[in-house]
Amino acid sequence: MTDRPAETVVAADLAVSALGECRVDSPLLPLLDTRQVSVNYVDESDRVLLDDTLSTLVAREGEGGPLGFEPGGPRRKIYFDPTKTRVGIVTCGGLCPGLNNVIRGLVMELTLHYKVKRIFGFRNGYQGFIARYGHPVVDLTPDVVRNIHEDGGTMLGTSRGSQDPEEIVDCLERMNINVLFVIGGDGSMRGAARIAEVAAARGERVAVVGIPKTIDNDIPYIDHSFGFQTAFGTAGETILAAKSEARSAPGGVGLVKLMGRHSGFIACYAALARNHADFVLIPEVPFDLDGPDGLLEQLRRRVEVAGNAVVVVAEGAGQEHFPSSENGSDASGNAKLRDVGVLLKERITEHFAGCGTELNLRYIDPSYTIRSVPANPYDSVYCLRLAHAAVHAAMAGRTAMVIGRWHGRFVHVPITLAVSGTNKVDPHGDLWMSVLEATGQPVRLTA
Amino acid sequence: MTDRPAETVVAADLAVSALGECRVDSPLLPLLDTRQVSVNYVDESDRVLLDDTLSTLVAREGEGGPLGFEPGGPRRKIYFDPTKTRVGIVTCGGLCPGLNNVIRGLVMELTLHYKVKRIFGFRNGYQGFIARYGHPVVDLTPDVVRNIHEDGGTMLGTSRGSQDPEEIVDCLERMNINVLFVIGGDGSMRGAARIAEVAAARGERVAVVGIPKTIDNDIPYIDHSFGFQTAFGTAGETILAAKSEARSAPGGVGLVKLMGRHSGFIACYAALARNHADFVLIPEVPFDLDGPDGLLEQLRRRVEVAGNAVVVVAEGAGQEHFPSSENGSDASGNAKLRDVGVLLKERITEHFAGCGTELNLRYIDPSYTIRSVPANPYDSVYCLRLAHAAVHAAMAGRTAMVIGRWHGRFVHVPITLAVSGTNKVDPHGDLWMSVLEATGQPVRLTA
Amino acid sequence: MTDRPAETVVAADLAVSALGECRVDSPLLPLLDTRQVSVNYVDESDRVLLDDTLSTLVAREGEGGPLGFEPGGPRRKIYFDPTKTRVGIVTCGGLCPGLNNVIRGLVMELTLHYKVKRIFGFRNGYQGFIARYGHPVVDLTPDVVRNIHEDGGTMLGTSRGSQDPEEIVDCLERMNINVLFVIGGDGSMRGAARIAEVAAARGERVAVVGIPKTIDNDIPYIDHSFGFQTAFGTAGETILAAKSEARSAPGGVGLVKLMGRHSGFIACYAALARNHADFVLIPEVPFDLDGPDGLLEQLRRRVEVAGNAVVVVAEGAGQEHFPSSENGSDASGNAKLRDVGVLLKERITEHFAGCGTELNLRYIDPSYTIRSVPANPYDSVYCLRLAHAAVHAAMAGRTAMVIGRWHGRFVHVPITLAVSGTNKVDPHGDLWMSVLEATGQPVRLTA
Amino acid sequence: MTDRPAETVVAADLAVSALGECRVDSPLLPLLDTRQVSVNYVDESDRVLLDDTLSTLVAREGEGGPLGFEPGGPRRKIYFDPTKTRVGIVTCGGLCPGLNNVIRGLVMELTLHYKVKRIFGFRNGYQGFIARYGHPVVDLTPDVVRNIHEDGGTMLGTSRGSQDPEEIVDCLERMNINVLFVIGGDGSMRGAARIAEVAAARGERVAVVGIPKTIDNDIPYIDHSFGFQTAFGTAGETILAAKSEARSAPGGVGLVKLMGRHSGFIACYAALARNHADFVLIPEVPFDLDGPDGLLEQLRRRVEVAGNAVVVVAEGAGQEHFPSSENGSDASGNAKLRDVGVLLKERITEHFAGCGTELNLRYIDPSYTIRSVPANPYDSVYCLRLAHAAVHAAMAGRTAMVIGRWHGRFVHVPITLAVSGTNKVDPHGDLWMSVLEATGQPVRLTA
């Protein structure tokens, strides 16, 4: 272990911008690789370009060169002495397939590859650091985590909401923890950044590394967030069930509400995977309910022509149809959404009744059964590799960063950048166009 | 085709009782088996005993011999001339895995084995016979049905509720239909019996054969009703999701409402299949909510000790906790149930709050996604064999009966018997005992 | 515990025959049921009839009354004192889905319901009792077995072949084991019977209870053996793959070899489940290869007409086509089968070449991937209930018996009866007829 | 349609290199978009950079600027008049999950979006263009393809091997086909390039667009080839079965041979997905069999310590252990591989026998059951989007190119570039390192 404090260092003299420069000062300890793996150690000045479309790149050159991320991977020299390193792991926010896989991957890599001896699991999110909640700490060893990836959920428990970063750093100090892995969403990542700040301000040598979790796939600089493929695959099964229901009754309408507060990725992918949706409604594309080209009448016509229809709606879609009022926010600080599924159910029922059209509507809201399933094979591999990259980053002294995946490469993304925006479905891009073509829904559901 | 009317004939001179004697007078046409299958043709006097426990059997002997069913299977002589036979198929009531498999099996067997030329599918349940609903009739051929078993639901559509049997027989007469297969629940079977009566009263030679559908597995004389295994397997996945949710939050409680109006088979089997339920509530076993031994407090204690718990409740359970009032009944004539899931959700929330115990309750009501999945391999085989048995029965002139399965044999069960009772979980039997032992729930949840 | 030796007692004065009378003398200890379960304790004179077809029954009456089995289930009084009982569990023979579920069910029921304290797992079949093999004994507790049902195979390991029953009883004596559960096939059950005999001859009070394992579903008095449904469901996936292969190439033939040494149940059910087989070959139905109506030419014609075909063959089928010679037998004492899959592959290739017919044959032999999958939901429930019944039987002092399932009831079947025959597909029964009808294959593939 | 011949045009004056410049001269026809989709039409000079690591990029700048691909997507103007366009589709080479999804996606997009009227499916690969094979052409309409994605394989059939491009172009001329989609591997893509050349030489206006198929994931410039995720997920099930087998017998060794002629991606991903492999052998990493650090002895030691082990071997691995001789090549022109699975089985058996170590080896070769399964949800979406991109490219007059996916963007890759190399697992990269860490296998299996 070094005698210098951990801090976020920006290497100002690099031609590339500061993206991915989130390290704990200079590496001191060479990694004693007992397994003699001749891996390609990552060169410290390598960068993965942020934008690789030529026109953008040319424009950037006038501004000081292209933006780039620090690639992930093992370093020739590491910062922390594994024999003395004490590690904490915490999972925060809502469930997502793959949480247990990430925990397992971290523990296996720390123990078997780096020979770290002590790993603590903090229970129920940031509450686990705060004594008054009374959640006991879990010792994490290979034996404990060996089979957890076969279960959905998280063996550590989780909770929403932030806790005082000072208290959390108190806990880290008390337990002599040098490395903290935070698996959570953007709110949790902001919390992680504050923890890193507080620790740095106190002169503590602590690496705080995030693994971004977002079942909605809406965190930028991550091709597909872990669990996303599992989630939309499971959601597709629900769409299939809705179609079976709709086809089996006169005037059958299946209405499926899926996750997606700010982005409609799950709705789009699930709809394409099964090809049974007739209308897909996402937050990125506003729609009218009323009028001859509004959803209600378009849906009614589809049912009259085809005998049935399936509507897939992301939970964040159509919020413009609620009276703007004080919705407040949940414990994670997310604005509370109004229930668009229930609204649609009511309005569809009214509209069909008003037109004298027979309706058999089945409303399916499968959220819990999607987010709590075990990871599929792809996500299993992905979570494992994310965990490996996170361990390499932390052991090399990086902090206040998350592991991203950019163009097929694992990269180090500063937390500030990772929480700076929201990844959205481009209403003019090819994903949404494929949805329009596959569903045959009108381009504009507007009056 | 015979010149005598179809009617239910009871062979009074048999020592066994009349169970299974539901045939259209005497068989006239030998089956011209072009495939020369040397099957074991069923002897007309064979019976499958209704009760095979010795003590019961001995008791019965004083009353005229043991009760028995007519075994299913091909007959050496058949009643209807396949070249002239016109067949109708209808599916009624709620969805159940395997409906399409049964339709497919009927059409394939009628066409390929018996060489029947015309098969009509009536759409949306009994509505399909009534012109004013405007549902067109579907021509069913091997090409049309070849792949339908890969879909859930029913390709014919379905609806609840009865229609005037006179009008239905009018339709059958108009279309010269001799054989009608009704796939539906007990209400639909009562309708089928009335159709058979009306047809007989008019002197029409029509065989009406039912294939009993009950996702709840509650029709007597059918070991497991088709779709039941698929349903409880899918329900088990939901219990697993509920457990993952419950384990992942402080004070986690998963509450899963499953099908089961009068019987708790799905709840019991799904709970045993996954072994993650802590409490199983079924209509056959009353329970108290309040008091130290009532559900609420027992659940709270379980959560305090184990950190989480899963409650599985059949929809028909706990109806005693609602004020008895005029609930009315649905279109199928079933008494409307009050929503025990919502009641439990409210009462659990109140109780935990009152005790100051942390609670994170997830309520999952997966009904549509269970009943609309495709049949699993076992149910696929079972539906196919049921369909074969139904075709054999109809072609041999049986009517006003359903295909049952009794002790591993397909049997002919008079509709009147099939709808005479409800198959229930025996609160003193080994299934319920296995549930008690596997869950560890108290034998009596009573104050 | 009694002071009288365990032995197989036949209650000669019962009107019913001796089936199921395999108990350790008189029960002495009332079951101290701390959970106060008001189950229906089974009456000692109840019997489940062996044959419930009336004609057979009447015939039997002249011979001393109908044959019956002792029903399974908990007894009001038990033979062994749970606090002093020491239990052994062993799995023998080939793998089968559900082995871990049975082990888990036994341990859970013994521990949680009967409060038995010591349960030993013997490793790798009967070798585990013999010191020179050096397999350590495993302590089985609820913690050890909690999640094993999620894995295929058996956590105890298994092996083929018998061991000296004297040595095995030596081991049981040395370890003071009173109850031994043997999970295995008919060879292993014969071994279990010999162990019971040796123990009885030595005056040891040992209950030896078998849970019959046969992936082929060929043990009599067991409706469906555990794992069978899982196995044929998995096998059906292979048939689907074979069909996809066959359809995708000119002259495509998919050839799938499935389990089934003496009986073709898996082949029949798997073929019906997926409906993609064109020929099903089972041990019960001989077939010719050559001649115009033999398999080879019939297959060639099918390929010419339909473009492709799938052949499903049980491993025990067609043995008549090998020169009768000294095949020897394997370690379990089973006669070695010649490889009918390879034979068919060669002969089909020759025949098509001789006729100048294009052939693209894909031969799939999936055995290991079928027998080693985890149990499906139905088998999971079934294994659990089998285990409960086995524990009830053993604690009540039954020995030299296996748990069977007869007409929906768990029953006690003497080992001698269980190994006395082989359950086979009836070539004149409705299962085979359904196969013929579903595949459209000729009734006789004979020259 | 234009009056100028189709040819591959290289826009020499662009600063970026010629990558992706494979178009039929100048676009003439504006797309009459009846659906008024305001998609982001792709600008003709956009390029997706080929290498986005900064150091590489800087180096390239001295050589004429960074290499880039033409992005995929709809063009503002198209080359072919949809009302007159006649399209051909052919699938070539081995099976791969998703073939039917691609066919379906092409037909749906051509018909519903571009309103193309005539689409022909050529059967059984390139044979379908040659009259003497006698394969009839299939008319492809939305009705025909609606459900084909639920089946594995290819509804068009496939075959290996090339056919005379002159004869193929004869066929295209005779049928007035303007657009040809070839779904196949690198051999088939070379064939497609020759077809494009011949057509251009004859002055025919034909766009030949490839959708690269490689279950091995070894075609460059395609992040993951379609079907790859489905394939490795299915392969992972086999590894699980092998582990269950290995764990269930003394000296248990599971040996699984997977696809991978030149690259070990499936072996690596499948091993990581299930985490049950102990040794992974791929073509990219040579290994010794003999010696203390060779595979055989390392495996034996693993079995002695852990009781069992699983070996996963890609079919192209270890070819150095066969005597170099004339192996010849198959109909596709691929060098014939020797069977490394059988070799390992023999050598492992010998080695264990020589050391007196007990061995129960199960060899599993699941190839057909992996490649013929239906696409999983991810691959379903991916195939649909690939098909959309291919249709956009063809309608815009691109030819002699394939649809690639580079850094999350669909791109146009010249066939010559797509077949110029083989995508391989980097033995020094993080995928292989994750495999080493997850399996714990020695870095070098060398004597």
Automatic annotation (TrEMBL), chains A, B, C, D:
- Where in the numbering of this chain does the Phosphofructokinase domain appear? 86-393
Binding site residues for ATP? 94, 160-161, 185-188
The annotated pathway is: Carbohydrate degradation; glycolysis; D-glyceraldehyde 3-phosphate and glycerone phosphate from D-glucose: step 3/4
UniProt-listed Enzyme Commission number(s): 2.7.1.11
Q: Which reaction does it catalyse?
A: beta-D-fructose 6-phosphate + ATP = beta-D-fructose 1,6-bisphosphate + ADP + H(+)
Which protein are we looking at? ATP-dependent 6-phosphofructokinase
Per the record, where is site Important for substrate specificity? 187
Report the source organism: Spongisporangium articulatum
Q: How far does the signal peptide extend, from start to end residue?
A: none
Among Pfam families, the record links this protein to:
PFK
Q: Which residues form the active site?
A: 216
Name the protein family.
Belongs to the phosphofructokinase type A (PFKA) family. PPi-dependent PFK group II subfamily. Atypical ATP-dependent clade 'X' sub-subfamily.
Q: What does this protein do?
A: Catalyzes the phosphorylation of D-fructose 6-phosphate to fructose 1,6-bisphosphate by ATP, the first committing step of glycolysis.
Where does this protein hold Mg(2+)?
A: 186
What subunit structure does UniProt give?
Homodimer.
- Positions annotated to bind substrate: 214-216, 259-261, 315, 368-371
Q: Which InterPro entries match?
A: ATP_PFK, PFKA, Phosphofructokinase_dom, PKF_sf, PyroP-dep_PFK_TP0108
Q: Which GO terms describe its molecular function?
A: 6-phosphofructokinase activity
Q: Which UniProt keywords apply?
A: ATP-binding, Cytoplasm, Glycolysis, Kinase, Magnesium, Metal-binding, Nucleotide-binding, Transferase
Q: Where in the cell is it found?
A: Cytoplasm
Give cofactor(s), names only.
Mg(2+)
